[in-house]
Structures are given as C-alpha cells and as structure tokens.
Amino acid sequence: MANNSTPHFHNTEGLRQIEVGSKEFQCVGALPPFDHPHIYIDMGKDNEVVCPYCSTHYVFSSRLPAGASNPASAVFHADAA
C-alpha cells in the first residue's frame, strides 16, 4: 500500500455490511458533513472488522480489486465531497 493512496470507504446508506478489496483502508462514516474522524483500519490476518466509530461491518473480498467495494457507492472520493 505504500506506493498507492489509502482507499477510503463510507456507509452513508446505512448498510449492514460492506465488502472491500483492501485490508488496509480508512473509514469516514457517512459523507461530509456527517462524517466521523477518518480512521485508519488494518484487518491484519482477519477478513473482517467493525469500525469502532460507526459500527460498519467491513468484509474483505479477494474478488474485488484493491480500493473497490461492494456496493461500489461505498468508495469515498475526497474531491467529490
């Protein structure tokens, strides 16, 4: 991940779970201005994690490219916020 920017994901839709193609990412909660502190999450050896701020359940999916999510709408683009 050192050569690329860290992907950011959000859960504005209030989904029960979001599949992500990266084990290292940042969760922003909902889209600004309703976001929480943008925190770095590292799943390590695990394949799932719950954000300690917004309780979003993230699940790693090896079938997704790095930085992608299912649903695709969960990818956060800072320039579009």
Question: How is the secondary structure organized here?
Answer:
Layout: E1 8-9, E2 17-20, E3 24-29, E4 35-42, E5 48-50, E6 57-60, E7 69-70
Parallel strand pairs: 1-3, 2-6
Antiparallel strand pairs: 2-7, 3-4, 5-6
Describe, in plain words, how this protein is organized in 3D.
Helix content is 0%, strand content 36%. With 81 residues, it is mostly beta strands. It starts with 7 loop residues before the first strand and ends in an 11-residue tail after the last strand.
Question: In brief, what are we looking at here?
Answer:
The mean pLDDT is 93. It is built from no helices and seven strands. The protein has 81 residues and is mainly beta.
List keywords for this structure.
four-stranded mixed beta sheet, 81 residues, three-stranded mixed beta sheet
Rg from alpha-carbon coordinates? 11 Å
Helix percent band: under 10%
Terminal CA distance: 23 Å
Secondary structure: number of strands: 7
As an assembly, this protein is single chain
SSE series:
EEEEEEE
In terms of per-residue confidence, which ranges show pLDDT below 50 for 5 or more consecutive residues? none
Largest beta-sheet details: 4 strands, mixed
Task: Note the overall shape.
Answer: globular
Mean pLDDT: 93
